[in-house]
Design goal:
Elements lengths: L3 E3 L17 H4 L4 H13 L9 E3 L3 H4 L11 E3 L13 H16 L6 E3 L4 H9 L2 H9 L19 H4 L2 H14 L5 E4 L1 E5 L8 H5 L31 E3 L3 E6 H4 L2 H8 L5 E6 L5 E5 L14 E4 L2 E5 L2 H10 L13 E5 L4 E6 L1 H5 L4
Helix pairs in contact: 5-6
Family: Belongs to the SUFU family.
Subcellular location: Cytoplasm; Nucleus
GO cellular component, one term: nucleus
């Protein structure tokens, strides 16, 4: 039986507590449990006609005898109440239900998670640096969340507009020192082997890969749930390519500088996984272990998975040439970049190109 005591925080107004002499018609309006609670509060606090809210110290759902079912976890979202709002909005519940559904469908492990609303520029900074660093910055700006990370849906300024020094002194320095902890994204992307004649479809005939999305790590990376024949992972041979053409939509292309500066220059890797098919593109640095792309053969494919190994010198060159990708609103699509000496081409294309079933 949970111990009950009145909370010090004011709660919603309770109906007048029915005493022993309350008319039967009045007493019948209350469930027996509430009737007992209101009656006890009236006895303990006779000078309070409107009892304070009652709060359970020990909650049933934390002290039940059943073990964890594996079908639930807790999400937290602190939302600023709008002026004149008398009841919580329903959209946060729908948002959290959608997030929970995604977690279960993706196979990721549930854990206690707090949702924090951020502006687009703050999200990009979290991608380029790390989420924890941006959260700490939000805590220092009261109107952007403060210590409790309260989301204000009407906030019109980013933390970088409120305090311009945060971008250069904290974020840029953090990227330079720590790099980025974002190791990959789902994206609209594709790649072509320019060193193989289009009519040479030997590999496409000998390797049958399904069209279901899949993870890139471990043996499951190339397994398929389709009804077609499945080639074991170890039987899919790795091909060394001479020349490749990478294709990204504008949103994905804007992350290339992040990939280069925040990941490869820190000895890490970054993966683009296509949301429209099986293809994946992984950029690796010379310090990444387990890569099948090497300095001798920097372009290598394992089925639909392409790895590209970039030296630090070439990364610096690409960053210089791709500088405009950090401001995608300033250029028109399509956009193409080429490094003939490296036999590498990168195209930034409209979304419709990737939405086409013929792509």
């Amino acid at each position: 039986m949970a111990e009950l005591r009145p909370s010090v925080a004011p709660g919603p107004a309770a109906p007048p507590a029915p005493g022993p002499s309350a008319p039967p018609a009045f007493a019948s309006l209350f469930p027996p449990g509430l009737h007992a609670i209101y009656g006890e509060c009236r006895r303990l606090y006779p000078d309070q006609p409107n009892p304070l809210q009652v709060t359970a110290i020990v909650k049933y759902w934390f002290t039940g005898t059943d073990g964890p079912s594996g079908f639930g976890f807790e999400l937290t979202f602190r939302l600023k109440r709008e002026t004149g709002e008398s009841a919580p909005p329903t959209w946060p519940a729908e948002l959290m239900q959608g997030l929970a559904r995604y977690v279960f469908q993706s196979g990721n492990g549930p854990r206690l998670a707090a949702i924090v609303g951020v502006c687009t520029e703050e999200l990009h900074s979290a991608q380029q640096w790390n989420g924890q660093g941006i959260l700490e910055l939000l805590r220092t700006v009261p109107v952007a969340g403060g210590p409790w990370l309260i989301t204000d849906m009407r906030r019109g300024e980013t933390i970088f507009e409120i305090d311009p020094h945060l971008q250069q002194e904290r974020v840029d320095k953090g990227i330079e020192t720590d790099g980025s902890n974002l190791s990959g994204v789902s994206a609209k992307c594709a790649w072509d082997d320019l060193s193989r004649p289009p009519e040479d479809d030997e590999d496409s005939r000998s390797i049958c890969i399904g069209t279901q999305p899949r993870r890139l790590s471990g043996k499951d990376s190339l397994e398929s749930d389709s009804s077609t024949a499945i080639i074991p992972h170890e039987l899919i041979r790795t091909r060394q390519l001479e020349s490749v053409h990478l294709k990204f939509n504008q949103e994905s292309g804007a992350l290339i500088p992040l990939c280069l500066r925040g990941r490869l220059l820190h000895g890490r890797h970054f993966t683009y996984k296509s949301i429209t098919g099986d293809m994946a593109i992984t950029f690796v640095s010379t310090g990444v272990e387990g890569a099948f792309a090497t300095e001798e053969h920097p372009y290598a494919a394992h089925g639909p998975w392409l790895q590209i190994l970039l030296t630090e010198e070439f990364v610096e060159k690409m960053l210089e040439d791709l500088e405009e990708l950090t401001s995608p609103e300033e250029f028109k699509l399509p956009k193409e970049y080429s490094w003939p000496e490296k036999k590498l081409r990168v195209s930034i294309l409209p979304d419709v190109v990737f939405d086409s079933p013929l792509h």
